[in-house]
Amino acid sequence: MKSRSSIKRAGIAGALGLASVLTCVSPASAATDIMRAEPFDANKLMLSICGGSTSRSYWLINVQTGELQKVTQTRWAQMFNVSSTTLRHPWEAFKGYCSYPESSSWTWNGPEKQISDTLVNCSSRSTMNQDIRGGGSTTSTTTNSVSVSVGIEWNVIEKVLSLQAGASYTRSWSYAKAKEWSRTTGISVPPRRKAWLSQRPVMRTVRSNPVFHVDEYRWGKTKVGSWRGRGYNEIVSYGAYYDAVGNVLNSDGTPSGQIVARDRGVNSAADCRS
């Protein structure tokens, strides 16, 4: 969508006035933090078993080292429904599914960047008044807190985070729906100056600590409905998270953030060749 407005030159300080805002969200479930409760790295565990999918998954775990083996539903049934497998220490088994609730969110100012071509005024007397088109593309990125040996499904996790953790910001956030945008603006270029449009966009980060919902847990010949038989069936590790980042959007779908005109003196030899 194009709009016309007049933007005068402004100092850097005027573009950086928006402070970051942090919002903490109450946990979506009564999940228990296991980050310091296990002899192995619970952060790696959580991002390994919650790599984007929300479907039920089946796992074997070495509770001394944290080593994981993913098994199929068929293999699980063969082990425990057909063969009545006895798990030998330190191997245990569990099945369940993941959810990706919002844990916290905050806004922040991204780095200023040029969003238009540069206009050069080689005149020594007259001011150049001209319309200029500024634009670019909105941002959508995902990062994770720890590296894991089991692959994260990046295409899947983006969709899941936008639907679960980012549900509150669907219409005001560019995450998972990056697109091109443009705006036409009037700009004044003083004599012997060159000018361009810049923007420091307002960004939003939404953090999700994935939660694993335990359906069944086994060791030896024991079967329970809680994590390692401890009485809780939803687990989280607060060092394991995904950060989803996108532009805060205006009502017309363009990225939020003050647009300013910048200028500097011309280089006669390079900018004003006859």
Give the secondary structure arrangement, pairings included:
Layout lengths: L11 H4 L5 E4 L7 E2 L8 H8 L7 E6 L5 E4 L1 H10 L8 E9 L4 E6 L3 E2 L4 E3 L6 E10 L2 E5 L9 H10 L16 E10 L3 E7 L2 E7 L2 E9 L2 E3 L9 E3 L5 E6 L11 E7 L2 H4 L3
Largest sheet properties: 7 strands, mixed
Helix count from the secondary structure assignment = 5
Low-pLDDT residue spans: 1-28
Helix content: 10-25%
Could you walk me through the main structural features you see in this protein, from its secondary elements to its overall organization?
- The protein is mainly beta and about 270 residues long.
- It is rod-shaped and about 90 Å long.
- Helix content is about 15%, strand content about 40%.
- The two termini are about 35 Å apart.
- The strands form 4 sheets. Strands 2, 3, 4, 5, 14, 15 and 16 form a 7-stranded mixed beta sheet that branches.
- The N terminus is likely disordered.
